[in-house]
């Protein structure tokens, strides 16, 4: 089933209908029905797309795979029907025996896109929608936009949280959360389609700010056009592209593939505005894909580049290093000292958020006030303590590592500190290629800092075996390839199997006037808790 097929007139028409049959649903998402052509629940579909664990009678469950036991659970709950990509073992046999409806699809993302489209069309047809994607900075940019709009008094939904649990859109979580909020806004204490789809006042959210993963897949199977499919279902008023860099190795294997996938949010935007990072050559190329009638907004950390760029002044937001301020339409709207964070890669996120809100016609004074009062997501260059300063960041890919280590080095100078210590968690179960690229990035930035500033840093690695689950365990090949690249670059380091030991070691070696940077994804997520345990045991 092609992407174009999902975006046909039939799928579009039934997504705006209050009710639909199983046959209509299956046709819209390109699925084949097994077990029964009738909803299992006597009252039909409640209006909520759900996960199996939390589903109740009348919900439609979307699940990547299901076995016979799962079908039995859904049947016992009187779930309306179940949509899956992979029926395992005896799943279809059980469905046929129980006369329980199971729709098997070729692409599970079509089901989740339909769920998004149906919920938005029926519950929030007048909402303004923002989609954000890119390799780095999308969570911070999304959360900033959410905060600016909320601070200005609007009712806003976002799928961005500290752990980025809902930003993949490969499950029905966003559609579920919106529907459940609709129920909570109603006086009727029950799940029913009448309760949800016949809401008189459908303005319980003025804005939807939805983070879309730039690359998505399952195992090594790329969900081609994921960002385009999801963004098309959302029908954005603004799309924000932060940057294009290598990540998700195995799903994509070239920058061209990352570009194609990320550009889906631009290609899917048919009204409003698109925000592009002028400093990223691949993002800038997306300007050629902007649809007719859509306004393009540009952001930059380079005053000379953006001032000379052939675009209207009201479409440019940039940082002027001479004036130490963010500039819009020739005027300084935020001073450097008013920003919630001052690292270059974070200021880029601020520029993106400001541009998105300008596109939404939010008053400049409200935007500036929102930025000034913003408090960052956890693990986004978060300051955990002083004396020594400990900074925690989610840097998990090559660009993120380089930017964050540079930002920490700049902090040493700004705060008149002595030394920089870096504790890096190796990424488990992500393969040799990504870990090799991460190690190369770490090697390069360490060499660059030594050449540019003379700074040497104390590097500690952790496999974090004491805090990660089996899905994030660092295997021997990943550890070896990471160390190999550091050894080739003649980078000195110390490796610890446990995060507790790595953090204990850095605390012992660091002086009060030093800066400690903690970087990495899942293997560094519990760092704050581990630090508290170390303090408690001393």
Secondary structure layout:
Layout: H1 3-6, H2 9-15, H3 22-29, E1 31-34, E2 49-50, E3 60-66, H4 68-76, E4 81-87, H5 91-98, E5 102-105, H6 108-123, E6 128-133, H7 138-151, E7 156-158, H8 173-184, H9 193-197, E8 207-211, E9 217-218, E10 221-222, H10 226-234, E11 238-241, H11 255-262, H12 264-267, E12 273-277, H13 281-285, E13 295-300, H14 303-308, E14 316-320, E15 325-328, E16 331-335, H15 344-359, H16 364-372, E17 382-385, E18 389-393, H17 398-414, E19 420-425, H18 431-453, E20 457-462, H19 476-488, E21 494-496, H20 499-509, E22 515-519, H21 527-537
Parallel strand pairs: 2-3, 3-4, 4-5, 6-8, 6-11, 7-8, 11-12, 12-13, 13-14, 18-22, 19-20, 19-22, 20-21
Antiparallel strand pairs: 1-5, 9-10, 14-15, 15-16, 17-18
Q: Can I get a quick summary?
A:
The protein has 538 residues and is of the alpha/beta class.
Beta-strand residue fraction: 15-25%
Structural class: alpha/beta
Mean pLDDT: 89
Number of helices: 21
| Number of distinct beta strands | 22
- Name the poorly predicted regions: none
Tell the overall outline. globular
Spatial order of the strands in the main sheet? 7-8-6-11-12-13-14-15-16
Helix content: 25-40%
Distance between the terminal alpha carbons, to the nearest Å? 60 Å
In angstroms, what is the radius of gyration?
24 Å
The major sheet is characterized as: 9 strands, mixed
Structure description:
The chain is α/β, with parallel strands linked by helices. Helix content is 40%, strand content 19%. A 9-stranded mixed sheet has the order 7-8-6-11-12-13-14-15-16, sandwiched between helices. It has a 6-stranded mixed sheet with strand order 17-18-22-19-20-21. Strands 1-5-4-3-2 form a 5-stranded mixed sheet, sandwiched between helices. The longest helix is centred in the last third of the chain and has 23 residues, at 431-453.
């Amino acid at each position: 089933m092609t992407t174009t097929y999902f975006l046909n007139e039939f799928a579009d028409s039934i997504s705006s209908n209050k009710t639909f049959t199983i046959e209509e649903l299956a046709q819209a998402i390109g699925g084949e029905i097994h077990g029964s052509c009738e909803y299992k629940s006597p009252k039909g579909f409640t209006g909520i797309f759900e996960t199996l664990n939390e589903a109740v009678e009348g919900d439609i469950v979307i699940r990547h795979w299901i076995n016979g036991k799962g079908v039995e659970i859904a049947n016992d709950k009187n779930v309306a029907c179940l949509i899956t990509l992979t029926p395992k073992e005896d799943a279809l046999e059980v469905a046929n025996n129980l006369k329980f409806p199971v729709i098997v699809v070729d692409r599970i993302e079509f089901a989740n896109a339909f769920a998004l489209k149906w919920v938005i069309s029926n519950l929030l047809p007048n909402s303004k929608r923002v989609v954000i994607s890119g390799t780095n900075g999308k969570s911070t940019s999304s959360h900033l936009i959410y905060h600016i709009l909320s601070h200005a008094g609007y009712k806003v939904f976002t799928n961005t949280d500290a752990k980025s649990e809902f930003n993949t859109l490969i499950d029905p979580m966003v559609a579920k959360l919106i529907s459940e909020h609709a129920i909570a806004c109603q006086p009727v204490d029950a799940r029913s389609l009448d309760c949800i789809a016949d809401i008189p006042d459908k303005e319980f959210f003025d804005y939807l700010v939805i983070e879309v993963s730039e690359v998505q897949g399952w195992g090594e199977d790329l969900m081609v056009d994921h960002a385009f499919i999801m963004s098309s279902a959302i029908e954005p008023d603004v799309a924000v592209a932060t940057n294009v860099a290598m990540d998700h190795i195995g799903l994509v294997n070239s920058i061209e593939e990352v570009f194609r996938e990320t550009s889906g949010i631009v290609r899917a935007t048919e009204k409003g505005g698109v925000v592009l990072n002028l400093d990223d050559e691949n993002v800038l190329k997306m300007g050629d894909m902007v649809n007719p009638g859509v306004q393009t907004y540009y952001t930059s950390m380079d005053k000379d580049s953006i001032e000379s760029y052939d675009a209207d002044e009201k479409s440019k937001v940039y940082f002027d290093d001479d004036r130490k301020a963010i500039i819009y339409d020739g005027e300084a709207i935020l001073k450097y000292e008013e920003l919630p964070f001052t690292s270059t890669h974070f200021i880029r996120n601020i520029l993106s958020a400001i541009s998105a809100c300008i596109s939404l016609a939010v008053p400049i004074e409200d935007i500036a006030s929102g930025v000034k009062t913003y408090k960052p997501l956890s693990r986004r260059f978060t300051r955990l303590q002083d004396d020594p300063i400990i900074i925690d960041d989610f840097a998990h890919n090559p660009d993120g590592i380089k930017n964050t280590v540079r930002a920490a080095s700049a902090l040493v100078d700004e705060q008149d500190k002595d030394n920089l210590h870096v504790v890096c968690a190796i990424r488990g179960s992500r393969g040799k290629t990504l870990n090799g690229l991460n190690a190369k990035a770490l090697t390069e930035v360490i060499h660059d800092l030594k050449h540019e500033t003379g700074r040497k840093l104390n590097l500690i690695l952790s496999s974090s075996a004491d805090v990660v689950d089996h899905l994030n365990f660092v295997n021997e090949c990943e550890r070896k390839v990471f160390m190999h690249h550091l050894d080739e670059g003649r980078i000195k380091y110390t490796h610890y199997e446990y995060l507790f030991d790595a953090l204990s070691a850095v605390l012992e070696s660091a002086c009060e006037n030093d800066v400690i940077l903690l970087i990495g994804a899942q293997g560094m997520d519990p760092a704050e808790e581990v630090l508290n345990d170390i303090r408690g045991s001393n």
